[in-house]
Design brief:
By secondary structure, the protein is of the alpha+beta class. It is about 40% helix and about 20% strand. Strands 1, 2, 3, 4, 10 and 11 form a six-stranded mixed beta sheet that branches. A five-stranded mixed beta sheet has the order 14-13-12-17-18, sandwiched between helices. Helix 3 links the parallel strand 10 and strand 11. Helix 4 packs across helix 14, helix 6 packs across helix 10 and helix 12 packs parallel to helix 13. It is globular. The chain starts with a strand and ends with a helix. This is Hsp70 family protein. Belongs to the heat shock protein 70 family. Keywords: ATP-binding, Cytoplasm, Nucleotide-binding. It comes from Methylobacterium komagatae.
């Protein structure tokens, strides 16, 4: 058998295998070790994934782009069908097509046929819903088997990141692992050492696990609602009474996984009714343009890019030219922090819950290991570090630590299956 580690993320995906030199990630799109978790369906063509999917959408090719599909796992939306050309496909089937393409590319790159997988999963797919959590894992397991994995096991993503970090640890320590991804923020407190790394059963070393369904796409959504959607009429008034323009359209347009729900004739007819009765048809008309021309993913991508640019350089412009020539919004690092302060504090609060679960004071944590794309937000990093003022801050591979750790776990899994055979 050949086992691999698969990190199917809300924003990006990696897949690793065991090379003669140890665990490595495989190239999944050209030379890139990560592939964006995006899929684009062109009429009468094989679907495109990753950067190619986004490029086809941006180029204006006819078809349907989908991103952020992991966030529907564990919810009724997973069985919802969406129009794809002349077909209607369930979202779970779209996820299966995406993962099948990733698996095929990894097998081509490695020269192996993978029949076993250690699949990453967040601590909670759905907050406060154990049944939804179970359904989400069951769905991913079914999908993995449908695409050709005979043996499927799961590992919490922050534990996987801990296994990757442990490869550089030279003495025993207690680390808090923070994996802040596109859809969830997950935390584990783990006892690590070179000696413990050689043990097959690490259950006693896991001191706490917790997580919350807040990730980078939620920061995107909050920024969009605060900076972009008011320019499209969000929060504006209707002509009569004290009612505002219905907000549901704007919330869907700002949410990666919900954007495609707007693209039907019924929604456009509803927006036309709103246009007739709203006080600012100049603004709501922009909403109609965004929906009619299916520019929702372009808007979301522009907001995401501005978030990253403001984090890295201090300021960014959000170009809304696809909606109206010359239209733009501005964003700086301070505004980013203010507009998403509640989210960053909600994420950081999980550290306190982990410490209580582990029965440890903050000063007992030796290292705070950070991985996941959203750890690039300066105010979020500061909020996390503030909870553990004496801990050493260690930056992991932003997009690769979880996948590498899952591959470390795959080595153990493969050895166990061989021993049982």
């Amino acid at each position: 058998m050949a086992a691999c580690g698969l990190d199917f993320g809300t924003s990006n995906t990696t897949l690793g295998h065991l090379s003669p030199g140890g665990p490595v990630l495989l190239p999944l799109e050209g030379t890139h070790l990560t592939v964006p978790s995006a899929i684009f369906f062109e009429p009468r063509q094989e679907p495109l994934v990753g950067r190619a999917a986004t490029a086809a959408y941006v180029a204006g090719k006819p078809g349907r782009l989908m991103r952020g599909l992991k966030s529907v796992l564990g919810t009724p939306l997973i069985e919802e069908a969406t129009p794809v050309g002349r077909e209607r496909l369930r979202l779970r089937d779209i996820i299966a097509r995406y993962i099948a393409i990733v698996k095929a590319r990894a097998e081509e790159a490695s020269g192996k046929s993978f029949d076993a997988v250690v699949h990453g999963r967040p601590v909670h797919f759905v907050d406060g819903d154990p049944e939804g959590d179970r359904r989400a894992e069951d769905t991913l397991r079914e999908i993995a088997r449908e695409v050709g994995f005979r043996d499927v096991v799961f590992q919490y993503e922050p534990i996987a990141a801990a296994l990757d970090y442990e490869r550089q640890v030279t003495r025993e320590e207690i680390a808090l692992i923070a994996d802040i991804g596109g859809g969830t923020s997950d935390f584990s407190i783990v006892r690590l050492s070179p000696e413990r790394r050689r043990q097959a059963d690490r259950a006693a070393d896991i001191l706490a696990n917790d997580g919350v369904r807040i990730g980078g796409t939620d920061f995107d959504r909050q920024l969009s609602l605060a900076t972009v959607m008011p320019l499209l009429g969000f929060g504006s008034a209707m002509k009569r009474g004290d009612l505002a323009v219905p907000g549901a359209y704007y919330h869907d347009l700002a949410t990666w996984s919900a954007i495609n729900r707007l693209y039907d004739g019924r929604t456009l007819r509803e927006i036309d009714d709103v246009l007739r009765d709203c006080a600012r048809p100049d603004l709501v008309g922009r909403l109609r343009t965004a929906v009619e021309e299916e520019r929702g993913h372009a808007l979301a991508g522009t907001v995401e890019a501005a978030k990253i640019a403001a984090s890295e350089t201090g300021a960014a412009s959000i170009d809304l030219g696809p909606i109206e020539r010359g239209l733009a919004a501005s964003l700086d690092r301070t505004g980013l922090a203010v507009k998403t302060d509640g989210l960053s504090r909600a994420v950081a609060a999980r550290i306190g819950k982990c410490l209580i679960q582990a029965g440890l004071p903050a000063e007992r944590i030796d290292a705070l290991f950070l991985t996941g794309g959203s750890t690039g937000l300066p105010h979020l990093r500061a909020a996390l570090a503030e909870c553990l003022p004496e801990a050493r801050i260690v930056a992991g591979d932003t997009f690769g630590s979880v996948g590498l750790g899952l591959t470390v776990a795959a080595e153990v899994f493969e050895g166990r299956v061989r021993a049982d055979a």
